[in-house]
Amino acid sequence: MTVMATGCPGSTAFMVPSATCYVYTTRNRIERTNKDVRYFTLQTKFHERKYTYGLVNKKYWLPYKKINGHYFYYIGYGAYIKARNVSFINDMPQYSNGEKAMLTMSGYPFTFDSKTKKIKDLTKLFKAGKYVVIDGLRQFTDSDGIYFVDADQPVYARLKGTGHGTTGTYVDVAALRAKDLYIFYSDPEEGHNPNYRINLVDINRLEDYYTDTKKKK
User: Fold this and answer.
1) What is the C-alpha separation between 141 and 31, in angstroms, rounded?
2) What pTM value is reported for the model?
3) CA–CA separation, 5 vs 22, rounded Å?
4) What is the pLDDT of residues 101-133, one digit of tens each?
């Protein structure tokens, strides 16, 4: 049996929990996958200092059905719920593999390599009005790769398809249209965001996990 919670986004760095949750069960089970599925969960790993990484590299998904261009989970007796509104599956955050957002400011994206710490500005201008697809969020520190939450540091959105190994291409979330951005991002200084409905991968947590496990080998 698989348990799903809707309407209550999780507790990773860029999420503010909602006050209302609805819990559903289904006889369908989550399955291990390496495919680029639309919605998925990542197995939770606990740190020795008692906080959770929130994810590791074991990906699972709950098979969904596409109806009129939208994805749904079957919960039995002929009933479905929209997959995009599900925040947790079996106590694991559900993630989207990409969310579309429009740029409201023109600018140049940059690439960042978390291994070499090098930043390279791209020469191609992204004009206001262009749509991009975002698949993850991150912040930067002097010792980048260590998980942290700092409301004073800007958050950057990774463009889908650019996360190869230790590199990625990013834009500032401030350049994204608010009604698109607040579907997958909550500003920690603004409190509860009623429009928040889906999680994106927290890249800081993912890199923290890989950094820590390499030190233990």
Assistant:
1) 36
2) 0.79
3) 6
4) 999 999 999 998 888 888 888 999 999 999 999
